[in-house]
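Q: Sequence in, structure out?
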Amino acid sequence: MSWLLDPNSLTARLKTHCHQFRVELLGQQIEHCQAHEAVVGISAGEKVLVREVLLYCDDKPQVFARSLLPLSSLTGREQALANLGTQSLGQVLFNNPSLERKIIEVATFDLTSSVGQLARHLQLTMTHTLWGRRSIFVLENKPLMVSEVFLPGAFSYQKIEDAMTNSRVDHV
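A: Exactly. Output:
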């Protein structure tokens, strides 16, 4: 649970657990913000740049991230956020001294969710509900939203998985 509520950079924390960190860009496009994703500062129907990535540690997928960057926030120096490619958004955000994290919301995802389906596509075995968080950031008075879901086998679940393994009893 400490991973969910950690206010610091998830990218930086992941990097401390592996030799090689990388970002895989799954997709990036301009859409209208859906009502279920609207948050303070980002209205339903507003045009946003949607960026979806996987964060890997030593070639093992750890996190699925979906970011909403309102086009109105992609002005001035923040315009560079639209062209990150395989660079970590978190690394860029947390290097800016004006960054404020406004809120962290926590959610769970089951096997039937789109993230559960992604985990199956990645051939990851789901043995428990997945946990995720949604954070609202403000950078130079411009809002953006980042959702992160910890994939099966992620470091964030280590204590849970260890407890499950230790509590199993083999019957002969």
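Confidence is low (pLDDT under 50) at residues 161-172.
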